[in-house]
Structures are given as C-alpha cells and as structure tokens.
Specification:
Layout lengths: L5 H9 L13 E7 L5 E7 L6 E2 L7 E6 L5 E8 L2 E8 L6 E4 L3 E7 L5 E7 L11 E7 L5 E3 L11 E6 L5 E6 L6 E6 L6 E2 L7 E2 L4 E2 L1 E7 L5 E7 L6 H4 L4 H9 L2 E6 L6 E5 L1 E5 L5 E7 L4 E8 L2 E5 L8 E6 L7
Antiparallel strand pairs: 1-2, 1-26, 2-3, 4-5, 5-6, 6-7, 8-9, 9-10, 10-11, 12-13, 13-14, 14-15, 16-17, 18-19, 19-20, 20-21, 22-23, 23-24, 24-25
Length: 331
C-alpha cells in the first residue's frame, strides 16, 4: 500500500501534535471496503467495527469518503464507466447527487464551511504516478460550478495534487513536484506564499535507486500539524516496471511511513510504518499498512496510552480509505 491503494493505481493506469482532549464513548467512521462481491462500498460504523451499516450499493466501487465538518454531508469517489466521479449524499447514504463526473476526480475534502469541496483532477499517463499530472479544483456544492484553485501560469507549470484545506479555511496543504520530487507544500488558497513544509532526511534511496516522495497530507484539528505519507512510490515495484524483483519490492514497501510536521516546518517526526494518515476529531493520528495474516489492511490510531487497532476493515477485504464523523454530530 502506498499513497494510493494497489487497485486504484491499477485502475488509473489502465484507464489511460497537540495534546488532545480525551472524549468518552466510541467514535464513528465511514470506511470504504469491499463487499462480498469484491466491490468497494461505503459503510458507516463505530470505531470498533460494530453497528456497521452499508451506505452505497455501487456496481463499480466507491472510495475516498470525506465527511463535512458539520457532519451533514458525505463526499466520495465512484467509478462511472471510464471515469471517476465525485458524489455527495447525506451521511446515511441518502439523497445522492453527482458533482462532477468527467475525467479522473480524486480525494475530495471539505472547506470548514461544509459548503465547498476541493479535490484533484488527474490526467493519467501510462505507468505514471497519478499525482504527477494533476491540478486542484474546488466547487460550491450549491452552484456545482468547478474552478481551478490555482490559476497563475507559474503554478500551473507543475503538478499540484491531494489538496486539503486548513481548519481555519485560509491555507491549503498539497503535494507538488515544483521542487523536483513530490513534496508537501502549504500556501494561501490562491497558491501564493507557497512553502515546502516537510524536508526529508534523504531525497534518494541509494540501494533502491529511486527518490523518496511525499503524499496525502492531512491537517490536525487545531491546524498546527500536518501528517503525511513518505516513501519510495509503488510505481517503482515489479507490478508496474514489468521486471520481477521481489527483494526490491520488499525494500520499497519497507520505506512506507507516516510522518507529522509542524506547519512551520519544525518538529518533524516519524509516527510509524504505513500510509493514508488521518486525524481523529479529538486529535490523534491514524496510519494503515497491509497485514498478510489478515489478508487486508490494519488501521492503527494513536491514544493517550500508545496505539490501538481500529477493526474497521473486515479480514480478507480490500479498502479505499476512511473518514471520521465529527464528534459533536455523533448520535
């Protein structure tokens, strides 16, 4: 597993820390995992996997759920023919609407006002990491009129991908190759005042002979920290190069890690192995990594006492990310 799940990368290629307050009770999530037919669907459940309720019944798969900050709306990506569309619905799966369906639209997330979405639109190329050829779009869900977030010619020379808006709504974190390799950047909403925020210890893995990259930034609830994935991208594995090399594949997978860094670029620290970081509503980082014994991913969340497993993906099931319900909106 890297910044994209294996099935998603295959699909795209084929189509071309603050101290948190403790809360009582079980938190809720919406998670994408496969059903009995092997199709990714959305399920709402408690963080211990109980009270699971299926929200979607897609023929081709739903992934990348994102719950609005007010807890009222759910955005997600659904495969429609040869494109990836963004849908929104109520958080019980009802009142489904299509926001945009042309092309490859990925990783929607919300502005703090719960009225606007931001996402990346990809122009996939054969055997290329999708984030390498992407731009950032935004939309008011009421008007359904998309527009590019960055418009300056200098900014558009580079790929800009995986955007997430700060809790105050005045900054955007994203990944870009404007410094060479894909790195996490933070800028004003128009792309001005862009700064690289997480400088890796090494830029290149000498033994693997491939660069370290960064993907999927995620803001902490207080806006002081950014979590992200870092490692050698899976497009360097045998599955994509066509050259069998199991030992090298293992080395690549061993580089996948979740890091946290202050928005000022300081206090960078490794959380652990894995990918797809999120922040719980009470300020704990999550990470996910494959577990062959389970036949699927393990999702871990930090706690005041260390870490615990979130059993939100059944054994022997694939998945497509998850999103936390805001605490104040949990029933």
């Amino acid at each position: 597993m890297s910044a994209f799940s294996y099935p998603l990368v295959i699909l795209l290629l084929s189509l071309t820390i603050f101290v948190p307050e403790a809360f009582a009770g079980l938190r809720e999530v919406v998670v994408s995992h496969t059903d009995e037919k092997g199709v990714l669907q959305l399920f709402r459940m408690k963080e211990d996997g109980s009270d699971s309720m299926q929200l979607t019944f897609s023929k081709h798969g739903c992934r990348m759920p994102s719950i609005s900050p007010d807890g009222e709306k759910l955005a997600y990506v659904e495969q429609v023919n040869h494109s990836l569309a963004i849908r929104i619905s109520d958080c019980d799966g009802r009142n489904v609407r299509t926001l945009t369906e042309g092309g490859m639209n990925l990783i929607p997330s919300w502005f703090p006002d719960s009225e606007q979405l931001v996402w990346m639109k990809v122009n996939p190329q054969p055997k290329q990491d999708p984030a390498r050829n992407a731009q950032i779009y935004t939309m008011d869900v009421g008007t359904r009129k998309p527009r590019r977030l960055f418009t300056e010619k200098e900014q558009l020379k580079y790929s800009n991908a995986m955007p997430v808006i700060s809790p105050k709504g005045d900054r955007v974190a994203f990944v870009s190759n404007r410094s060479g390799e894909m790195r996490v950047w933070v800028s004003a909403l128009d792309g001005s005042d862009a700064k690289l925020v997480s400088k890796p210890v090494k830029s290149y893995h000498d033994e693997i002979k491939a660069p370290f990259e960064q993907k999927v930034p995620a803001w902490s609830p207080d806006g002081k920290w950014i979590a992200h994935w870092e490692g050698v991208e899976m497009t360097h594995m045998s599955q994509f190069t066509g050259i069998p090399n199991p030992k090298r594949d293992q080395m690549i997978a061993s580089t996948f890690s979740v890091w946290v860094v202050g928005v000022n670029g300081e206090d960078r620290r490794r959380i652990g192995r894995g990918d797809d970081p999120t922040w719980s509503p009470d300020g704990f980082v999550t990470r996910a990594f494959p577990d062959p014994s389970r036949g699927g991913p393990v999702v871990m969340v930090q706690t005041l006492d260390g870490e615990k497993m979130l059993p939100i993906v059944p054994p022997r099931r694939n998945w497509g990310r998850f999103s936390w319900m805001p605490f104040q909106k949990s029933p």
